[in-house]
Specification:
The chain is of the alpha+beta class. Helix content is 29%, strand content 27%. It has helices at 6-18, 53-65, 116-125, 141-147, 207-224, 243-249, 278-296, 313-319; strands spanning 25-31, 43-49, 70-73, 79-81, 86-92, 101-104, 107-111, 128-129, 150-151, 154-155, 160-166, 172-176, 182-183, 186-187, 194-201, 203-204, 230-233, 256-257, 260-262, 269-272, 305-307. The strands form seven sheets. A five-stranded antiparallel beta sheet has the order 6-7-15-11-12, covered by helices on one side. It has a four-stranded mixed beta sheet with strand order 1-2-5-3, covered by helices on one side. It has a four-stranded antiparallel beta sheet with strand order 17-20-19-18. A hairpin with a 2-residue loop joins strand 6 and strand 7 (107-111). The longest helix has 19 residues, at 278-296. It binds flavin-adenine dinucleotide.
């Protein structure tokens, strides 16, 4: 184990850079707000797009050896990153090596970095039905696996045959979907492991029929969701009432803190209107949770993943 003091941190990162291929993207102090759909949050201390599984394994082994935290970023559509950003390494599997989509019979083999939209469109082109619900979810395959994302009555793991993933030691596993501890909007096996790819299974169906379903889903979605920047649904639905309906019944639609507003279109969306900070969004979340508890005795749990460091009090004072 190597101790990393703040003064040696830059040298340690330079050493990591020197062990990675030239095709791997490596940046320090990289803005993450622009990499999330909510458009808030501070920078990543180090941001890496590995070009290969070999580089990804090197990053994981190195981070472990030097006790540097890592996290995976998909397309940032279910993330609320705090304002002081992320200390450590943010890994994004957006390079072509991780974004391939191929087909065998009724199976779709897709890299974790592939966009869900592309998966559903390519499946349609290849006459494979069953993946239409992924069409309007603005995430990656990796994010959808981690979150067991779902829409229009379908969930990711309904169509997953198997997942290939990497653990923190850099060891690769391939497991059946049923072995991965899946529940509503969560796959616990991927909390500390990185999904590399998945095999999805659909049904051979004429492309025109698939197109019809996708169009219906798309129209339904755009009538019921705000177009402004958001992270999708902020809260998980409760067993007794959908979170959006609850927020609406509590009269909280339109409530604003700074640039963060509860959407008028859908009560479970907080939109970024006029330069919200992560703190604005977090404060609004706290108000909604408190009201739900006080008025209905309901504990709301966030679906959005909240990560990163808070701006320290000292820092806030120094700026004011
Ligand atoms: C307008 C809008 C509409 C949405 N509609 C829906 C919807 O209908 N249904 C729904 O379920 N969600 C919806 N979402 C939320 C979001 O799109 C999904 O949760 C999506 O699956 C997140 O994917 P991502 O790639 O953006 O993940 P990110 O937001 O980048 O990450 C989410 C989590 O997944 C982890 N992760 C990412 N990649 C990997 C990987 N390769 N291995 C392991 N962990 C990984 C991250 O570390 C993080 O914990 C919506 C969001 C928006 C903005």
């Amino acid at each position: 184990m190597v101790e990393v003091t703040p003064s040696s941190r830059e040298q340690v990162f330079a050493k990591l850079r020197s062990r990675l291929s030239a095709q791997t993207v490596f940046r320090t102090n990289e803005s993450l707000a622009k990499r999330t759909t909510l458009r808030v949050g501070g920078p990543a201390e180090v941001y890496i797009e590995p070009a290969s599984e070999t580089d990804l394994s090197t990053i994981l082994r190195f981070s472990r050896e030097h006790e540097i935290a890592t996290m995976v970023l998909g397309r940032g559509s279910n993330l609320l990153i705090r304002d002081a950003g992320i200390r450590g390494i943010v890994i994004c599997l957006s390079q072509p090596e991780f974004s391939k989509i191929t087909f065998t019979g009724d199976q779709v083999i897709c890299g974790a970095g592939a966009k869900l939209k592309n998966v559903s469109v390519e499946a349609r082109r290849n006459n494979i039905a069953g993946l239409e619900f992924l069409e309007g979810i603005p995430g990656s395959v990796g994010g959808a696996l981690r979150m067991n994302a779902g829409a229009m009555g379908g969930s990711t793991f309904d169509v997953v045959e198997s997942v290939r993933y990497l653990d923190a030691e850099g060891v690769i596993y391939e497991k059946k979907g049923a072995e991965l501890g899946v529940e509503y909007r969560c796959c616990s096996a991927l909390k500390n492991n990185i999904a590399l790819s998945a095999v999805l299974r659909g049904r051979i169906t004429p492309a025109e029929m698939i197109a019809q379903t996708m169009n219906q889903y798309s129209q339904k979605r755009w009538k019921s969701q705000p177009a402004a920047p958001s992270a999708g649904c902020i809260f998980k639905n409760t067993p007794t009432i959908p979170a959006g309906k609850l927020v609406e019944e509590l009269g909280l639609k339109g409530t604003r803190i700074g640039g963060a507003v509860v959407s008028d279109v859908h009560g479970n969306f907080i939109v970024n209107d006029r330069n919200a900070t992560a703190k604005d969004v977090l404060d609004l979340i706290a108000i909604i949770k408190q009201r739900a508890k006080d008025a209905r005795g309901i504990d709301l749990h966030t679906e959005v993943q909240i990560v990163g460091e808070e701006v320290s009090h000292e820092h806030t004072q120094a700026r004011s």
